[in-house]
Amino acid sequence: MSTIAVASPLSTVRAKPGQPAQVRLFPAGRDEASGRFRAVVEIALADGYKTYWREPGDSGVPTVFDWGASDNVADVNVRYPVPQRFFDGTGHAIGYLSTVRFPVEVTPVAAGKAVELRVNIDFGVCRDICIPEQATVAATLSDIEQIAGLWEDAVALTPVTLEPGGTSPVARASIVGSNLILTIDGTKGEGAELAGEGIFLEGPAGWSFGLPVRADHQNGALFSVPVRHPAFETPVDIDVTLAAGVAEDRAVETQVKVLPPQ
C-alpha cells in the first residue's frame, strides 16, 4: 500500500493562523477483509479553542456529519474519540480541548469502484463565546492510504464497542426519583480510577443527563446521574461510554436497558 506522508501527532496540529478551526478529510485506504473504505476527518483547533462531542452536555453545539452529497456510498460509520468534560462558565460541557480526528468507515454501493466522499459538518468552536461553524470537505477514496499511521492513531483514541452483558462492565440501570442509578461491575475490570467525569450517557430524544456522582459498593461502583426524560412505558436503550474500560486499557462503549419507573 503506497503512502505519501506520515501522520503528525495530534499535539502538534493547529488550525491555520487567524482561524479558530480548520477541517480536513484524509483518505485512509481500504480494509481488505470487509471491503470498506477508510477515511479520517480532522478538526484542527487553534490554541485556546474547543469543540464538542455528539452529546455536548449542558451547553455547546454537537458535532454532526452529513454525507448525503457523496457518490457510491451505501453507508457511513463515524467513530467519535472519547471526549472529556470541562466547565465552560455556565455548566459542564462535553467535547475536545484540542485537535480531534474522527475515523470513518465507508461501505460502497458498487464494490471495486472509487468512492467520492463529501461531508458537510456542523459543529461549534468556542473560546470565550461559542461560534457555530459549518464546513464542507471532499475526497476520492481508493485503496491508497494518504498518510501512514493516521487511521491507526485515530482509532486508538476511540472506545471499544462491547455488547451488553458478556464482558461489558455496565451491569444495570434504573430510574430512582430524578436520578438514573448506573451499576458498574468491578469484577469485569472497571478499575478503581473511573470517576463520574469519565462516564458519558446518551438517550433517545428528550433525554438529558447531568454529572454522574460515584458511590463505591462491594463489587464495583454505583453512579447517581441526574436525568430528565419523557414518560415511557417500555424499556429504553441508553448508550454508555466509559473513559476507562476493560479492553486493553481502552475506553469502552456499550448499551444498557432502563426499565420504566415502578
UniProtKB/TrEMBL annotation:
Pfam families to which the protein is assigned, alphabetical: DsbD_N
Domain Thiol:disulfide interchange protein DsbD N-terminal: 33-140
Name of the featured protein: DsbC/DsbD-like thiol-disulfide interchange protein
Organism this protein belongs to: Pseudochelatococcus contaminans
